[in-house]
From TrEMBL:
The lineage of its organism: Bacteria, Bacillati, Actinomycetota, Actinomycetes, Pseudonocardiales. This is tRNA-dihydrouridine synthase. Residues 347-359 have a biased composition (Basic and acidic residues). Belongs to the dus family. It comes from the Bacteria. It comes from Pseudonocardia parietis.
Length: 394
């Protein structure tokens, strides 16, 4: 079965001048999407409302917020509430986190039996200390046998639903794991690998090392897509990453915060079309309003309007909007209130150059906290105790 997901909607006027497609469609198991772009899973961000907003701009794979295997297996109601997809969302991509092969297998089995998602992405990139301290996230691929078992069990549990793996370069510069981990994952049945080209100790600081993505592309069999991730803040960045690394698709995280139309730009760029004109402040305001409405629809009015508050600064980045209005927007109480505040903006204000470039968390590098003796034996199969926590990803 091949499911082709076409463009969802291109709201803005793209010039029809056609050039060659930059890359062939991106195939993840039975799914094929013309635009080789993946929305990176982001805890607290990539909920159904935000995914719909992005899907309205351009085609791609849109991955949900991270779901813990333990939450699934223990039938935690909160976990089940997070697994929500729109009726027209295909494929339904779920990111699963876990360190215990048995619970990952059971969680993947549940995904199939309850038809919760069409595709499972596994998170081995989280650098958060409370996760790595217990051997989870980006710490785990160092334990290559355990890593192999987790991927294999998940693939077996998932049956014919494709499983992909997302990881970092390694723990730090002395412990790169990605090349081994990718080979292991592919041998264990993963159908694609994504690399956030930073080590866990870099967190989000500095620049992603795209040369690692190029090395990964060379190391992995050519029929297995390699997805590059890290520091794509514009469509040109995506084209540059593809040109420099040979990757088969890109994963975009922080670049779309307050800028979901980036997916329209990416669709145009990969199709070889001219990019749509950047939005003026009036268009930005209507996108922000749409975001708020979608969050309210999915989360209820109270939670939805509060959730949109954290996006306001990203939407307004670089625009000349006074501190008073920004503050009021950051405390917006309802859609009517939002309308009132947005009406104070000058809709003709052009998109500012300052809004280009990096956005979202950056932070500083730091030592990766690991369990005691973690680095002594990479072949140790012991499941790290207590690492199967509920947590926000990264
Ligand atoms: C707020 C936030 C939450 C994130 N949550 C997750 C997550 O749950 N799972 C995951 O694999 N990566 C997570 N990430 C990492 C992103 O998926 C992505 O790998 C990273 O941001 C680098 O890509 P970028 O440079 O395009 O942002 C998160 C990143 C951010 C900024």
């Amino acid at each position: 079965m091949t499911i082709v997901q076409g463009r969802v909607r291109d709201q803005r006027t793209a010039t029809p001048a056609r050039r060659e497609r930059v890359l062939p469609p991106l195939r993840i198991g039975p799914f094929e999407v013309d635009t080789p772009v993946v929305l990176a899973p982001m805890a607290g961000i990539t909920n159904p409302g935000f995914r719909r907003l992005c899907r309205e701009q351009g085609a791609g794979y849109y991955v949900c917020e991270m779901i813990t295997a333990r939450g699934l297996v223990e039938k935690n109601p909160l976990t089940f509430r997070m697994i929500a997809f729109d009726a027209d969302e295909r494929p339904r991509s779920m990111q699963l986190y876990g360190v215990d092969p048995e619970s990952m297998r059971r969680a993947a089995r549940m995904v199939v039996e309850r038809d919760l998602a069409d595709h499972i992405d596994m998170n081995f990139g989280c650098p958060v200390p409370k996760v790595t301290r217990r051997g989870g996230g980006a710490a785990l691929p160092f334990k290559r046998k355990l890593f192999e078992r987790i991927v294999r069990e998940t693939v077996e549990g998932a049956g014919d639903r494709p499983v992909t793996v997302k990881m970092r370069i390694g723990i730090d510069d002395d412990h790169h794991t990605y090349l081994d981990a990718a080979r292991i994952a592919v041998d264990a049945g993963a159908v694609a690998v994504a690399l956030h080209a930073r080590t866990a100790s870099q967190r989000y600081s500095g620049a992603a090392d795209w040369s690692a993505i190029a090395r990964l592309r060379e190391a992995v069999p050519s029929h297995v897509p390699v997805l590059g991730n890290g520091d794509i803040f514009s469509a040109q960045d995506a084209l540059d990453m593809v040109a420099r690394t040979g990757c088969d698709g890109v994963v975009v995280g922080r670049g779309c915060l307050g800028r979901p139309w980036l997916f329209g730009d990416l669709e145009a760029a990969f199709a070889g079309r001219e990019l749509p004109a950047p939005p003026d402040l009036g268009q930005v305001a209507s996108t922000l309003r749409r975001h708020a409405v979608l969050l309210c629809e999915h989360m209820g009015d109270h939670k939805g309007i509060r959730d949109v508050r954290k996006h306001i600064a990203w939407y307004l980045k670089g625009f000349p909007v006074g501190p008073e209005l920004r503050r009021s927007l950051g405390m917006v109480e309802s859609i009517d209130h939002l309308d009132e505040l947005l009406s104070e903006l000058d809709p003709h204000e052009p998109f500012p150059a300052e809004a280009d470039g990096p956005r979202g968390r950056q932070g500083s590098p730091g030592r990766v906290v690991l369990p005691e003796h973690w680095l002594d034996d990479p072949d140790d199969l012991a499941v790290p105790f207590g690492a199967d926590v509920e947590h926000s990803g990264g």
